[in-house]
Amino acid sequence: GAVVSQHPSRVICKSGTSVKIECRSLDFQATTMFWYRQFPKKSLMLMATSNEGSKATYEQGVEKDKFLINHASLTLSTLTVTSAHPEDSSFYICSARIQGNEAFFGQGTRLTVV
Amino acid sequence: AQSVTQLDSHVSVSEGTPVLLRCNYSSSYSPSLFWYVQHPNKGLQLLLKYTSAATLVKGINGFEAEFKKSETSFHLTKPSAHMSDAAEYFCVVSLPAGTYKYIFGTGTRLKVLA
Known about the structure:
Chain A is mostly beta strands.
């Protein structure tokens, strides 16, 4: 099946710094990628939808200046958490979809801001 | 509006006994429904999906689910639980074709007792 790779799997950063998370579709071209956030023992909440070559569409309540999304190619989307704070600590998961098919999920990134 | 409700936040079964994880959905459209499994600190793995074909859907690892429109349900079952089935399970409804936004249920944590 289709493989989506997310990097890094874990990251610890200091408060006030920025962190970039990469999401790559390894064996297919993804027209659309999605970014989710999962709080401890909670479900996944969609943060934004990114389409290659265009601006991301953010869900209500998600700060676009805080969570910068770039989808520069059909195989790579990045999420940058800017000026991270402890409350940004969470599990972030990306997914990518092939046109007309279901989405495939990355392994997730555990972000801890200290 | 689309939504999905997982009726049990925790389910415990003994190894070798049947598993039932309940899911009810609400959708204005003919829905696409999925079950995903998440092991600790891991990404999501697709167990099975319903996309308006056969109402009884067979998935991986012996899981299956039945789509019942009259009951708006899509319960996940397995005849005999294995220790390796212990994980978090998410029922997901997909928004209408063309968006592939996923709405996640709150999750059910399955515990398998030896």
